[in-house]
Request: fold
Amino acid sequence: MQTTTFEPLRWSEQPARVAIQHTNGRQEAYFQITSPRDLQRMCLGRPVEELPRITSLLSPSHHLVSAMALDNLVGVQPPQLAVNMRSGLLLSLCIAHHLRKLYFFISSHEDPFLEFHMRGTRRQEDRIPHHLVNELVQSLDLAQEAATILGGRAHHPLSAVAGGVGRALKEPYYERLTEIAEKSLAFAVKLAPVFAEKELGNGRTHDGLLDLPVKPTLHLSLSEDGSQVVVSDAEEKDVERFQPNQVFEKVHLHREPWTHEPFAYLADRGWKSREPESSDSLYFVGPLSRVISGKGMAGEPAEQARVQLIENPDEAPLFSVNGALRSLLVEVIGTAEKMVELYKQENLVGPSYRTVPSHMGTTGSATLESPGGLIAHRYEVDERGLVRKIEILDIAAENNALRCFIAKRAVEESAVRNFSHKQTKSMIEASLLPF
Amino acid sequence: MNRFEPKIVAFLCNWCSYVAADAAGVARLTQKPNVRVIRVFCSGMVDPSYVVKAFASGADAVLVAGCHPGDCHYIAGNIKAMRRSFLLSKLLAELGVEKERFRLEWIAASEGPRYAAVMNGLIEEIRELGPFVPATQKVLKGVG
Amino acid sequence: MPKTKLAIFTATGCRGCEDAVLDIHHFVNSLTPWAEIVFWPYVAGHHWQDLEDHDQIDLCLFAGAICTDADRQAAETLRDKAKLMVACGACAAFGGLPGLVNLTSNRQEESMPGITEGDPPPLPRTEPRVRGLSGVVETDYFIPGCPPTQNLLWTAIQALACGGEAPARISYAYARLPESTSLAVTSGVLPRHGSTFGGERAVCAGCSRMKQEKKFSTVYRQHEIAPDPGRCLLEQGVICQGLATREGCGGLCTAVGAACRGCFGKAEGIYDAGTKMVSAISSTFDTTDRKEAERMTDRFVDLAGTLYRYTVPEQCVLLSADPKE
Reply:
């Protein structure tokens, strides 16, 4: 038995590798997360109010859902100002998250750190113009600035606490936020068609990324008002709806001994396998999932982009790496539109930014649609408010089966095209990037 | 002879407990030889980090002994030591140091016999308890 | 003049430190006359084999804690190749949040059940204790923080990769670095081996809150009180670890209403940050009564997890003491 490994995987949030085992002419590909996050063990015995900071290790959005779970635990409703500030933070995190993925995608064929003056001489007509790449980075920076204003810090935010946020905004920031929102929207609208045409257009791929169709499975997302978790299928049909606080009953995690990340599946249907082709209990989350199953984007430009994505017959199949990248573009526009609506001074002032709770409950939970997909926390505390039990649903677990499948298909396609080791690795990485 | 001999580090204040220890010696009161005495000018100057350093350096128990409340040469140094002792014990317990291993005692200068009794008692208690094993060693040995 | 070679790698943690380097994007671009990044798997997709194309690399920014034997192997491989190993971020510098698992006393070597011949390749073994970088290899410099602040990160990269020649906007960092380090940085010589790219004093020096009288009457947990935004948090009864923590962040957390949790590690001259905090807090207990002091102490919870939040593996004396016989 022979084993080939591809590691470390580029752009992977966690240390990961793809290992292929060749036995008797057959080959099996495994996508393995090689290091334990152990977040549960880090949190047990900690004071529960510290969790927003500790869980932000997974992603900045976890900071927010943790604060929401705390609100639930202590039974308070944060004041509207705090709710708006937290939503504002989430929007900026979403834009930053998506732009970063798009930036990584561009950097797969262009060294991101090449000297500016040298780039001009290597410019190719069929690539995205360099000044646009620069603007993309600047737009990313602006989104992170907004995250810093609203959250204290972009990567491990600080401002969300039980019952609200930690402090109000300072006067000069209102104008700045409005400015950031407008610039973000202007750029998003400019970027989308150019990116779609130059990087993804005509079903064309670049440098080894093949348009990898993914078998449609179910998707999970939170309804727009946050009151229900919606399970839908490829034809935009509602398969099931349930209350957010039931998510840990409805979704279970299956563990395999060869990877540290579990696989999420719908408990009612039972664990069948990690192959989307042979299991109807698997689902996935994220921008592609949301754009397909969503009821439509609020603003005109975003809706246009979305419609184009799902209805254009010349485009590559919907459930594809190509489609996933396009959905990022759609969402950047949509999120920027929401930013323009929200980042108005009248929404970001108020008499109070925090409700101090009067008692501590025993359990609390919350769900949130993070940039990468649905996330959820549930805590159980002892009489001193120390964490006794903690359950976390993260997109890594939810999309794990999908990523395994994509890795496998990428390996298969590479073999068909006789790719070298390096090329196969690039193919795997680029395929996994937008998920 | 494989009996475990505890190593006790004792921080004794110059004005009371050190004098008591000295007196116990002069009076030839039988004492076991397990103590390392560190003379300080007041129990209030024993920073919690000295206690931790003692344990990290191999002590099995640490005793801080000062004057009775009201008798401190610096008025309230022993009160400061008292205030610190609770939070320090709590932290030590969380770090794997059993509460018997750290003690704060009041011993007046005239209480030579009491010093000997306290010390001998502590030594036997710690002998029962066993040597202090830092948590890291426990983990590596698969214990605990 | 040949360019210096730079490597950037994360063991186990998150991608915050590497994203922090990306965030200084245009500055990283301006490095190109002096340095090239020859090994950055996360962003540039390098393989381990690519490292072998170079006899030596000049600087390695190593982030993440050592949780598995693969992490340890990576640290040793990069240490062999690199002239300078820099622990980038709290996880590499002293263990970080992953180090909290060391507090659960029964962390044993984990092997995943059920791996036999014919199954997929076994995962790297987990280490019995999470360690920071300096716990497994000799570390030359430390950039603390979770994630490191951009100015200090940039100062470190310039100082160590460009010999101080890169156009520097380091006046902000300069003001927060100890004199000896900042002099070395601007002169283009390497700072003293083992230096930390952070200040010498405690966070209080950079915190914008007003400090008045230190009297601590009762402890409040973060959700129990909406503190006055202008006044020192410790004085209001919230445990803020600023006074035992190295400065350099400018009091980032306290400015946002969050108490300092010590992500820059212990300040200069402190033997053990936890006991320093114990000393500071309990010395300012506003009582002389024994019963009252006991009652006040009773309200504290999870001292070890709070006071050593980021530093259990390498800076908590009683939990990181190397076993002696």
